[in-house]
Amino acid sequence: MDFFNDLTVVSLEQATVLPYLTYRLAQDGMNIIRLEHPVYGDPNRFIGDNVLDEERMNSYFLCINAGKKALTLNLAEAEGQQIFHSLIKELDVDIFATNQLPKNYQKLGIDYDSLKSLKPDIIWLGVTGFGPDSNEAAYDPILQARSGLMELTGEAEGDPQVMGIPLPDMGTSEHAYGMVMKALYKRQLTGNGSCINMAMFESTVSWLTVPITLTDSFGKSISRRGNTHEFFAPVSVYQTQNGFVYLAVGNDRQWKTMVSQEIFKSLDHPAYEKNEGRIKDVKNLNQAINAITRFHTTEDLIELFTAITVPISKIKLVDEVIKDPLVERRLLYAQDPATGTRITLAPPPNMTSFLEQSDRQLSFPPRFGEQNNEIYGKKLGYSEDDLSRLKENGVI
Q: Would you call 169 a catalytic residue per the annotation?
Protein backbone atom coordinates (compact mmCIF):
# COMPACT_ATOMS: atom_id res chain seq x y z
CA MET A 1 0.00 0.00 0.00
CA ASP A 2 1.29 3.47 -0.91
CA PHE A 3 0.85 6.08 1.78
CA PHE A 4 2.17 9.04 -0.20
CA ASN A 5 0.70 8.96 -3.70
CA ASP A 6 -2.15 11.29 -2.73
CA LEU A 7 0.24 13.95 -1.46
CA THR A 8 1.11 17.01 -3.55
CA VAL A 9 4.33 18.97 -3.15
CA VAL A 10 4.94 22.37 -4.74
CA SER A 11 8.57 23.37 -4.61
CA LEU A 12 10.12 26.67 -5.65
CA GLU A 13 13.47 25.02 -6.17
CA GLN A 14 16.83 25.33 -7.85
CA ALA A 15 20.39 24.01 -7.58
CA THR A 16 20.79 20.80 -5.52
CA VAL A 17 19.65 20.96 -1.91
CA LEU A 18 15.90 21.21 -2.54
CA PRO A 19 15.72 19.33 -5.86
CA TYR A 20 17.41 16.36 -4.18
CA LEU A 21 14.83 16.44 -1.37
CA THR A 22 11.89 16.49 -3.78
CA TYR A 23 13.59 13.76 -5.84
CA ARG A 24 13.57 11.64 -2.66
CA LEU A 25 9.89 12.46 -2.11
CA ALA A 26 9.14 11.51 -5.73
CA GLN A 27 10.62 8.09 -4.97
CA ASP A 28 7.92 7.73 -2.32
CA GLY A 29 5.28 8.39 -4.99
CA MET A 30 4.41 11.98 -4.07
CA ASN A 31 3.19 14.33 -6.80
CA ILE A 32 6.07 16.80 -7.18
CA ILE A 33 5.58 20.13 -8.98
CA ARG A 34 8.70 22.26 -9.31
CA LEU A 35 8.32 26.02 -9.87
CA GLU A 36 10.85 28.04 -11.83
CA HIS A 37 11.15 31.65 -12.95
CA PRO A 38 9.92 31.91 -16.58
CA VAL A 39 13.12 33.63 -17.75
CA TYR A 40 15.96 32.42 -15.56
CA GLY A 41 14.75 29.00 -14.46
CA ASP A 42 16.95 26.60 -12.52
CA PRO A 43 20.62 27.38 -13.30
CA ASN A 44 21.38 23.65 -13.08
CA ARG A 45 19.45 23.15 -16.31
CA PHE A 46 22.44 24.68 -18.10
CA ILE A 47 25.14 22.64 -16.34
CA GLY A 48 26.85 19.63 -17.89
CA ASP A 49 26.75 18.32 -21.44
CA ASN A 50 23.85 19.09 -23.77
CA VAL A 51 23.04 15.41 -24.13
CA LEU A 52 19.55 15.89 -25.65
CA ASP A 53 20.64 18.65 -28.04
CA GLU A 54 18.14 21.10 -26.61
CA GLU A 55 18.22 24.01 -24.18
CA ARG A 56 17.73 23.66 -20.42
CA MET A 57 18.02 19.85 -20.33
CA ASN A 58 21.74 19.40 -19.74
CA SER A 59 23.13 16.27 -18.12
CA TYR A 60 23.69 17.67 -14.60
CA PHE A 61 20.02 18.64 -14.31
CA LEU A 62 18.84 15.16 -15.27
CA CYS A 63 20.45 13.45 -12.26
CA ILE A 64 18.00 14.47 -9.52
CA ASN A 65 14.86 15.73 -11.25
CA ALA A 66 13.15 12.60 -12.55
CA GLY A 67 9.64 11.89 -11.30
CA LYS A 68 8.59 15.56 -11.25
CA LYS A 69 6.43 18.03 -13.14
CA ALA A 70 7.58 21.55 -14.01
CA LEU A 71 5.81 24.91 -14.08
CA THR A 72 7.14 28.36 -14.85
CA LEU A 73 5.78 31.25 -12.80
CA ASN A 74 6.92 34.79 -12.08
CA LEU A 75 6.10 35.38 -8.42
CA ALA A 76 7.38 38.97 -8.60
CA GLU A 77 4.22 39.79 -10.59
CA ALA A 78 0.94 40.27 -8.73
CA GLU A 79 -0.87 37.98 -11.17
CA GLY A 80 1.85 35.39 -10.66
CA GLN A 81 1.16 35.41 -6.94
CA GLN A 82 -2.56 35.07 -7.59
CA ILE A 83 -1.92 32.03 -9.75
CA PHE A 84 0.40 30.59 -7.12
CA HIS A 85 -2.19 30.99 -4.39
CA SER A 86 -4.75 29.34 -6.66
CA LEU A 87 -2.36 26.42 -7.06
CA ILE A 88 -2.11 26.02 -3.30
CA LYS A 89 -5.88 25.91 -2.92
CA GLU A 90 -7.04 24.15 -6.07
CA LEU A 91 -4.38 21.44 -5.97
CA ASP A 92 -4.89 21.00 -2.22
CA VAL A 93 -1.13 21.25 -1.73
CA ASP A 94 0.19 19.30 1.25
CA ILE A 95 3.79 20.51 1.29
CA PHE A 96 5.35 23.74 0.02
CA ALA A 97 9.12 24.03 -0.06
CA THR A 98 11.52 26.76 -1.12
CA ASN A 99 15.22 27.57 -1.05
CA GLN A 100 14.72 31.26 -1.75
CA LEU A 101 16.44 33.77 0.53
CA PRO A 102 14.23 34.70 3.53
CA LYS A 103 14.04 38.35 2.42
CA ASN A 104 12.01 37.15 -0.58
CA TYR A 105 9.38 35.18 1.32
CA GLN A 106 6.83 37.95 1.84
CA LYS A 107 7.79 39.79 -1.35
CA LEU A 108 6.92 36.70 -3.40
CA GLY A 109 3.88 35.75 -1.32
CA ILE A 110 5.37 32.43 -0.26
CA ASP A 111 5.77 33.04 3.48
CA TYR A 112 4.27 30.58 5.92
CA ASP A 113 1.55 32.89 7.27
CA SER A 114 0.26 33.66 3.76
CA LEU A 115 0.09 30.00 2.80
CA LYS A 116 -1.36 28.95 6.14
CA SER A 117 -4.25 31.36 5.57
CA LEU A 118 -4.96 29.56 2.30
CA LYS A 119 -4.37 26.01 3.57
CA PRO A 120 -4.34 25.80 7.39
CA ASP A 121 -2.74 22.35 7.55
CA ILE A 122 0.01 23.03 5.00
CA ILE A 123 3.54 21.86 5.76
CA TRP A 124 5.91 24.72 4.89
CA LEU A 125 9.65 24.17 4.48
CA GLY A 126 12.24 26.88 3.98
CA VAL A 127 15.80 25.73 3.29
CA THR A 128 18.42 28.44 3.78
CA GLY A 129 22.17 28.65 4.10
CA PHE A 130 22.33 30.01 7.63
CA GLY A 131 18.78 30.18 8.97
CA PRO A 132 15.66 32.33 8.47
CA ASP A 133 17.29 35.42 10.00
CA SER A 134 20.16 35.42 7.50
CA ASN A 135 20.14 36.36 3.83
CA GLU A 136 23.74 35.31 3.27
CA ALA A 137 24.17 33.34 0.06
CA ALA A 138 25.49 29.81 0.48
CA TYR A 139 26.97 27.26 -1.88
CA ASP A 140 27.99 23.77 -0.88
CA PRO A 141 31.81 24.37 -0.92
CA ILE A 142 31.38 27.53 1.18
CA LEU A 143 29.50 25.49 3.76
CA GLN A 144 32.17 22.80 3.65
CA ALA A 145 34.77 25.47 4.38
CA ARG A 146 32.85 27.24 7.15
CA SER A 147 31.64 24.07 8.88
CA GLY A 148 35.09 22.50 9.22
CA LEU A 149 34.44 19.68 6.75
CA MET A 150 37.14 20.98 4.44
CA GLU A 151 39.65 21.22 7.28
CA LEU A 152 38.98 17.54 7.99
CA THR A 153 39.38 16.40 4.37
CA GLY A 154 42.69 15.78 2.59
CA GLU A 155 46.22 14.66 3.35
CA ALA A 156 47.73 15.61 6.70
CA GLU A 157 50.46 17.71 5.11
CA GLY A 158 48.38 18.89 2.16
CA ASP A 159 45.80 21.57 1.45
CA PRO A 160 42.21 21.30 2.72
CA GLN A 161 40.00 19.56 0.13
CA VAL A 162 36.34 19.56 -0.83
CA MET A 163 34.55 16.24 -0.45
CA GLY A 164 33.78 14.02 -3.41
CA ILE A 165 30.03 14.56 -2.92
CA PRO A 166 28.19 17.74 -1.82
CA LEU A 167 27.41 16.65 1.75
CA PRO A 168 26.02 20.05 2.90
CA ASP A 169 23.52 19.93 0.02
CA MET A 170 22.55 16.29 0.21
CA GLY A 171 22.92 15.96 3.97
CA THR A 172 20.55 18.89 4.46
CA SER A 173 18.13 17.23 2.05
CA GLU A 174 18.15 14.09 4.16
CA HIS A 175 17.65 16.04 7.39
CA ALA A 176 14.80 17.95 5.75
CA TYR A 177 13.30 14.65 4.57
CA GLY A 178 13.13 13.50 8.19
CA MET A 179 11.54 16.78 9.31
CA VAL A 180 8.90 16.55 6.56
CA MET A 181 8.04 13.00 7.61
CA LYS A 182 7.72 14.12 11.25
CA ALA A 183 5.44 16.95 10.12
CA LEU A 184 3.26 14.55 8.14
CA TYR A 185 2.98 12.32 11.21
CA LYS A 186 2.10 15.33 13.39
CA ARG A 187 -0.56 16.40 10.91
CA GLN A 188 -2.02 12.91 10.82
CA LEU A 189 -2.32 12.93 14.63
CA THR A 190 -3.40 16.54 15.22
CA GLY A 191 -4.60 17.95 11.92
CA ASN A 192 -2.09 20.77 12.25
CA GLY A 193 0.44 21.87 9.66
CA SER A 194 4.04 22.86 10.36
CA CYS A 195 6.55 25.60 9.63
CA ILE A 196 10.02 24.09 9.16
CA ASN A 197 13.16 26.18 8.83
CA MET A 198 16.15 24.10 7.80
CA ALA A 199 19.61 25.72 7.75
CA MET A 200 22.29 24.03 5.66
CA PHE A 201 25.01 25.27 8.01
CA GLU A 202 23.36 23.75 11.09
CA SER A 203 22.76 20.51 9.22
CA THR A 204 26.39 20.33 8.11
CA VAL A 205 27.92 21.08 11.51
CA SER A 206 25.75 18.37 13.07
CA TRP A 207 27.89 15.73 11.32
CA LEU A 208 30.95 16.82 13.35
CA THR A 209 30.09 14.62 16.33
CA VAL A 210 33.57 13.39 17.29
CA PRO A 211 35.56 16.51 16.28
CA ILE A 212 33.43 18.92 18.31
CA THR A 213 33.30 16.85 21.51
CA LEU A 214 37.01 15.98 21.50
CA THR A 215 38.06 19.52 20.60
CA ASP A 216 35.94 21.47 23.05
CA SER A 217 35.74 19.00 25.92
CA PHE A 218 39.23 17.51 25.91
CA GLY A 219 41.39 20.00 24.02
CA LYS A 220 42.29 17.60 21.25
CA SER A 221 43.33 19.00 17.87
CA ILE A 222 41.34 17.36 15.08
CA SER A 223 42.39 17.92 11.47
CA ARG A 224 42.66 16.07 8.15
CA ARG A 225 44.55 12.81 8.21
CA GLY A 226 44.37 11.49 4.67
CA ASN A 227 43.31 7.86 4.40
CA THR A 228 44.28 6.79 7.91
CA HIS A 229 41.91 6.66 10.87
CA GLU A 230 42.32 8.89 13.90
CA PHE A 231 41.83 6.09 16.43
CA PHE A 232 42.24 2.71 14.71
CA ALA A 233 45.16 1.08 12.87
CA PRO A 234 45.77 -0.32 10.40
CA VAL A 235 42.93 1.45 8.59
CA SER A 236 44.00 2.95 5.28
CA VAL A 237 44.49 2.57 1.54
CA TYR A 238 47.15 0.09 0.51
CA GLN A 239 48.71 -0.47 -2.88
CA THR A 240 48.34 -3.84 -4.58
CA GLN A 241 49.95 -5.42 -7.60
CA ASN A 242 47.08 -4.20 -9.77
CA GLY A 243 45.37 -1.35 -7.91
CA PHE A 244 44.41 -0.35 -4.39
CA VAL A 245 42.42 -1.76 -1.48
CA TYR A 246 41.06 -0.19 1.68
CA LEU A 247 41.72 -2.33 4.74
CA ALA A 248 40.06 -1.70 8.09
CA VAL A 249 41.30 -3.55 11.18
CA GLY A 250 38.88 -2.52 13.89
CA ASN A 251 40.17 -4.37 16.96
CA ASP A 252 43.11 -6.31 18.41
CA ARG A 253 41.51 -9.69 17.68
CA GLN A 254 41.30 -8.88 13.98
CA TRP A 255 44.94 -7.73 14.04
CA LYS A 256 46.01 -11.00 15.64
CA THR A 257 44.13 -12.93 12.98
CA MET A 258 45.75 -10.84 10.25
CA VAL A 259 49.33 -11.38 11.43
CA SER A 260 48.68 -15.09 11.86
CA GLN A 261 48.50 -15.27 8.06
CA GLU A 262 51.77 -16.29 6.43
CA ILE A 263 52.27 -13.14 4.35
CA PHE A 264 51.87 -10.83 7.38
CA LYS A 265 53.80 -12.81 10.03
CA SER A 266 56.70 -10.35 9.84
CA LEU A 267 54.40 -7.75 11.45
CA ASP A 268 53.60 -9.85 14.51
CA HIS A 269 55.50 -7.63 17.00
CA PRO A 270 54.64 -7.20 20.71
CA ALA A 271 54.50 -3.42 20.20
CA TYR A 272 51.66 -3.90 17.73
CA GLU A 273 49.53 -6.27 19.82
CA LYS A 274 47.35 -3.41 21.07
CA ASN A 275 45.71 -0.74 18.95
CA GLU A 276 47.44 1.96 21.01
CA GLY A 277 50.85 0.68 19.93
CA ARG A 278 49.81 0.47 16.29
CA ILE A 279 48.45 4.03 16.32
CA LYS A 280 51.69 5.36 17.83
CA ASP A 281 53.70 3.90 14.96
CA VAL A 282 51.04 4.13 12.26
CA LYS A 283 53.28 5.69 9.61
CA ASN A 284 55.89 2.93 9.79
CA LEU A 285 53.19 0.27 10.13
CA ASN A 286 51.42 1.44 6.98
CA GLN A 287 54.69 1.48 5.06
CA ALA A 288 55.39 -2.09 6.19
CA ILE A 289 51.94 -3.26 5.12
CA ASN A 290 52.33 -1.54 1.75
CA ALA A 291 55.66 -3.27 1.26
CA ILE A 292 53.77 -6.57 1.50
CA THR A 293 50.47 -5.80 -0.28
CA ARG A 294 52.07 -4.35 -3.40
CA PHE A 295 53.35 -7.80 -4.31
CA HIS A 296 49.87 -9.37 -4.17
CA THR A 297 46.84 -8.82 -6.40
CA THR A 298 43.74 -7.04 -5.21
CA GLU A 299 41.72 -10.20 -5.78
CA ASP A 300 44.05 -12.38 -3.70
CA LEU A 301 44.04 -9.91 -0.81
CA ILE A 302 40.26 -9.64 -0.84
CA GLU A 303 39.95 -13.42 -0.79
CA LEU A 304 42.39 -13.67 2.12
CA PHE A 305 40.83 -11.00 4.32
CA THR A 306 37.28 -12.05 3.54
CA ALA A 307 38.16 -15.57 4.67
CA ILE A 308 39.35 -14.27 8.06
CA THR A 309 36.45 -11.79 8.38
CA VAL A 310 38.52 -8.61 8.30
CA PRO A 311 36.82 -5.81 6.30
CA ILE A 312 38.47 -4.99 2.98
CA SER A 313 37.39 -3.52 -0.33
CA LYS A 314 38.80 -2.74 -3.71
CA ILE A 315 38.88 1.01 -4.40
CA LYS A 316 36.25 0.92 -7.10
CA LEU A 317 35.65 3.24 -10.02
CA VAL A 318 32.09 4.53 -10.45
CA ASP A 319 31.42 2.24 -13.41
CA GLU A 320 32.49 -0.70 -11.25
CA VAL A 321 30.11 0.41 -8.48
CA ILE A 322 27.26 0.46 -10.99
CA LYS A 323 28.00 -3.18 -11.89
CA ASP A 324 28.02 -4.31 -8.25
CA PRO A 325 25.13 -6.83 -7.91
CA LEU A 326 23.90 -5.07 -4.76
CA VAL A 327 23.72 -1.78 -6.67
CA GLU A 328 22.58 -3.06 -10.05
CA ARG A 329 19.35 -4.50 -8.68
CA ARG A 330 18.46 -1.13 -7.10
CA LEU A 331 19.27 1.27 -9.95
CA LEU A 332 16.47 3.55 -11.14
CA TYR A 333 15.66 4.51 -14.72
CA ALA A 334 13.79 7.14 -16.69
CA GLN A 335 13.05 7.22 -20.42
CA ASP A 336 12.36 10.33 -22.47
CA PRO A 337 9.14 9.84 -24.48
CA ALA A 338 10.29 12.49 -26.95
CA THR A 339 13.77 11.25 -27.88
CA GLY A 340 13.79 7.71 -26.48
CA THR A 341 16.84 8.56 -24.36
CA ARG A 342 17.06 6.31 -21.30
CA ILE A 343 18.99 7.47 -18.26
CA THR A 344 20.25 5.51 -15.28
CA LEU A 345 19.68 7.07 -11.87
CA ALA A 346 21.33 6.42 -8.51
CA PRO A 347 19.51 3.90 -6.31
CA PRO A 348 17.39 5.14 -3.40
CA PRO A 349 18.67 4.74 0.16
CA ASN A 350 15.89 2.18 0.58
CA MET A 351 13.57 0.64 -1.97
CA THR A 352 10.07 2.07 -1.65
CA SER A 353 6.86 0.28 -2.52
CA PHE A 354 6.17 2.95 -5.15
CA LEU A 355 9.45 2.20 -6.90
CA GLU A 356 8.85 -1.54 -6.71
CA GLN A 357 5.39 -1.15 -8.23
CA SER A 358 6.76 1.07 -11.02
CA ASP A 359 9.56 -1.42 -11.76
CA ARG A 360 12.08 1.22 -10.65
CA GLN A 361 10.97 3.59 -13.42
CA LEU A 362 10.42 7.31 -12.88
CA SER A 363 9.06 9.83 -15.34
CA PHE A 364 11.76 11.65 -17.31
CA PRO A 365 13.02 14.96 -15.82
CA PRO A 366 10.57 17.64 -16.96
CA ARG A 367 11.36 20.19 -19.61
CA PHE A 368 11.15 23.87 -18.74
CA GLY A 369 7.48 24.63 -18.00
CA GLU A 370 6.44 21.29 -19.47
CA GLN A 371 3.22 21.05 -17.46
CA ASN A 372 2.11 24.69 -17.83
CA ASN A 373 -0.80 23.83 -20.13
CA GLU A 374 -1.77 20.73 -18.19
CA ILE A 375 -1.90 22.34 -14.76
CA TYR A 376 -2.77 25.97 -15.50
CA GLY A 377 -5.21 24.96 -18.22
CA LYS A 378 -6.85 21.74 -17.06
CA LYS A 379 -6.47 22.15 -13.28
CA LEU A 380 -6.92 25.90 -12.85
CA GLY A 381 -9.18 26.47 -15.85
CA TYR A 382 -7.14 29.01 -17.83
CA SER A 383 -8.00 29.12 -21.55
CA GLU A 384 -5.42 28.97 -24.33
CA ASP A 385 -5.87 32.71 -24.86
CA ASP A 386 -5.29 33.29 -21.13
CA LEU A 387 -2.12 31.22 -21.21
CA SER A 388 -0.84 33.06 -24.28
CA ARG A 389 -1.46 36.40 -22.59
CA LEU A 390 0.28 35.26 -19.39
CA LYS A 391 3.26 34.09 -21.40
CA GLU A 392 3.48 37.35 -23.36
CA ASN A 393 3.35 39.32 -20.11
CA GLY A 394 6.15 37.26 -18.55
CA VAL A 395 3.93 35.76 -15.85
CA ILE A 396 4.46 32.15 -16.94
A: yes
Q: Contact at 8 Å (CB) between 349 and 23?
A: no
* Half-sphere exposure for 268 (CA within 13 Å, toward CB): 13
Overall fold of domain 235-316: formyl-coa transferase, domain 3 (3.30.1540)
- pLDDT at residue 1 in the model: 53
pTM of the model: 0.94
CATH number of 8-206+327-392: 3.40.50.10540
Give me the percent of the chain exceeding a pLDDT of 90.
98
The residue among 238, 247, 228 whose CA lies nearest residue 296 is 238
Q: In the chain, where do the E strands start and end?
A: 8-12, 31-36, 68-72, 95-98, 123-128, 194-199, 235-240, 243-248, 312-314, 332-335, 342-345
Phi, psi of 226 (to 5 degrees): 70, -135
- Among the listed residues 169, 268, 281, 324, the single catalytic one is 169
